[in-house]
Specification:
The chain contains two helices and four strands; from the N terminus they run E-H-E-E-H-E. It has 93 residues and is an alpha+beta fold.
Length: 93
């Protein structure tokens, strides 16, 4: 079975994938409150990194699962999350 792969148009701008969260990992203390609050279970501690405070910071494990509900930002005592609304899919404004 053949699968068609869309080709990019030469000169077309490259659109980065949507990231619903920006995480200030340098301020995260790894308390895991956001992990427990996330209804989609798409946050985890990044055990491969130690931030300047000496903690393993949070990372987004599945951007596609994140609904931008902002529960992580609401419970975070260090305000490390910036939550972005998902882009609108077509339609007029």
């Amino acid at each position: 079975m053949a699968v068609a792969v869309p080709r990019s148009t030469p000169g077309a701008p490259i659109v980065p994938a949507f990231e619903p969260l920006e995480i200030a990992a340098e301020r995260c203390k790894g308390c895991e409150l956001c992990i427990r609050a996330c209804p989609k279970h798409c946050l985890a501690l990044d055990s491969t990194i130690v931030n300047p405070l000496g903690y393993h910071p949070i990372r987004l494990t599945d951007a596609g699962a994140c609904t931008s509900c902002a529960l992580c930002a609401r419970v975070c005592p260090d305000a490390v999350f910036t939550v972005f609304a998902p882009p609108r899919s077509g339609g007029s404004t």
